[in-house]
Write a structure and sequence with these properties.
InterPro entries: PEX8-like. The structure is a single chain. The protein is mostly helical. Among the domains are: about 10-205; about 510-715, no CATH class. Helices cover about 70% and strands about 0% of the residues. The protein is built from 36 helices and no strands. The protein has helices at about 5-10, 15-25, 35, 45-55, 60-70, 80-90, 105-120, 130-150, 155-175, 180-205, 210-220, 230-240, 240-250, 270-275, 275-280, 280-295, 300-320, 325, 335-360, 365-385, 385-390, 395-415, 415-425, 440-455, 460-475, 480-495, 510-530, 540-555, 560-565, 565-580, 595-600, 605-615, 620-630, 635-650, 655-675, 680-700. Helix 9 (about 155-175) runs parallel beside helix 11 (about 210-220) and helix 35 runs antiparallel to helix 36 (about 680-700). It starts with a helix and ends in a 21-residue tail after the last helix.
Amino acid sequence: MSSSNNFYNRLGPQGRSLLTQIQQQQPNQTLTQQDQLYNITAPSRLDFLFHEIANPKSTTTPQQILSYLAYYYPKLKNEQNVQLLTYSFLRCPLFFNSNRVISFQENYKIIECFNYIMDKKFRVSQPTLPFYKFYHSILTALIRFTASDFESHWKIIPLMVGCIMSIETRKNYDSHPPQYQLISKIDQNILNLTEKSLTYSFKNYQLGNDLESLNLICLGCINNSISNDKVFTDILKFSPHLPNQLLQLIFSSPYGLDNGKVIVSGMSYSVEVGNKAVLKHLGNLALLYSKLIRVHPNLDINLDDIDLALNKIQTFTECLVKRNVDIEDPNNTDIWLLLRQVFFSVVVMFENLVSLFFEINDSTLNNRIMPRFSRKILTSLFNMSFIIDKIGTGGFEAYNFIYLSCLNSIIEYDLKVGELLIQVWTSNINFGELESSSIERSKLLFDLNFIESMITIVSDDLKFNMILPIIHRLVHTSKNQPILESSHSVMLKFFTILDTHFESDDDIQIDYNLNMAKIKNQILDYLTLSLDQFPDQLSLTQVGIIVETLARIVFPNSIIYESDKELCKSVLNLIYNRCQSTGDDLVTNEISNEQEGFKSISSDSENEQDDQSKLKTKRASLTSLLIRIIPLIPIHDFECWLNLIYDNLICSTKDSTEKVYLLDKLWGSILGTNKYYPQKGNLGINWWYEYVNIEFEDHSANIDPPQVTNTDDSLKPKL
């Protein structure tokens, strides 16, 4: 068989077709002047391939060219052909031209193509051309190409990025291939040339939108491989607004999230990510943005661009919320895959942005900048709260760091910003759609959480005319458990306002006496409501937190007690009368899914959970609440209340298991009293031995005092 036939048989279907066409057209197979310059003689049998790539017909597509490269590169058997194929591709007008006008979508595929080529070649078990020589030939071609045409650095960037991206895959496949040290040296040379080419490209070119977008993708793909921050600093000197342009690419451009337009019913996550390089590399681009703002050489430009970037993110999140019909479709699981990816990327950017100000550590700058930045960051998180509720933030330290840092900045530097956020967020919640819309519920929960942190320091006008009327309505009427629990948390925080240090100024007016009067007027009604909601809407743990919190507010050593000692008696009588009037109905609807923020008010959750498991009737459960606040009862009423609780509540308990458990709780409460109030505790201990034990001895059923080791530290007096 002739050598010509052997060559024809070795070609793939596309190669055979091309060979036939070229032979019919009798193309000129002479080398170009550039090839002659390198003293390379192209094998005549491959001229047809090089010619077609460098001079494609009008019907040839970019995808066909990349297919030729992916097919033929790994099969080339000598270094000269590898170099010639590289030269031919870099002259292909479908990807490169002197005007630097490219297609972002098509030229991005160069990265993936060369990533594939390097992986494919590396896995050839017995190559005619060893991988090291193959790799070295590509590097040699790239160096020679840019040496002859220094303005062509931008052309070689995607090729080299594809090679760099294959490094990790190669190491995972075989970390010590033949000549691996030489291969590693080429890896470093490729990376160095890429850094040089990117810097030159940003420095010397007026880049079109597509080419700039491609360079940003390339920079994002190799961000973790660049160890020298000077590379980024040099690029930013020439392109100081690059971080803002990157955010434009991610959130606003049709190549990226397109202000939420990619979120549509029936979307395929794999298809969207496969078709959009920005989405595929979203995590890398978020890290790139973080790197750029942290090494930016010009602080003023950086801050201005961060402000604009936060506007872009906020606009995107606002557009996202408007896609509620698509998002709330339960069948759109692919949408949630994308939303999760977007949320994590935004959190990465926010985390590094907030960290930047801790690194700068300039209180004057923070005072001027952070309230505004915090407002925009928190508003974006407010808009994305439905994602947070879906995926949760348990263990998500970055999110908590962002939220608390922004909250503290607002509290420290500008409370009016906090008030503005409450007004804007609350007005943007559609309360009529709370039952039907998970997005509206999530927004309200986020708002309530923020209000809980702010209610003791906002102005009376906002508190009494806007916040509390809404909270009152929610605690009375909400059918959604998380919203009900969050509303109760806000109410409890409001009742602790007198413990807050007041510093009224012209902007934030807080009247101490007015707040005290409001608390006095509302506390009994609120306690009644809370007891009414047990056990159908509030668990024993939750109503216990409420009772204990309110007791601290009105009992001795509190500000209100010094003002109105009768309120303490009213609270005790209200709980006692409720115990007396309640039957032995079984607690069948115990709420078990308490919201974490509501539970956190309690400091003795283990004991409370034990109460829930041991007490089965409503009467015994309410009695346990009264026992819990015994240490707070004034000393002159202490023994009287011990008798009332024991004689009228514990002794009348029908279930023997519950009775013994309540006795155990009573003894534990007395010991807790003795720990912090020795005089009062001594009265209780003497009462126990003289009255409770004596009674049991008379009935020949002596019961030793329960061995309580875990007394209630939550009742420790406040200094």
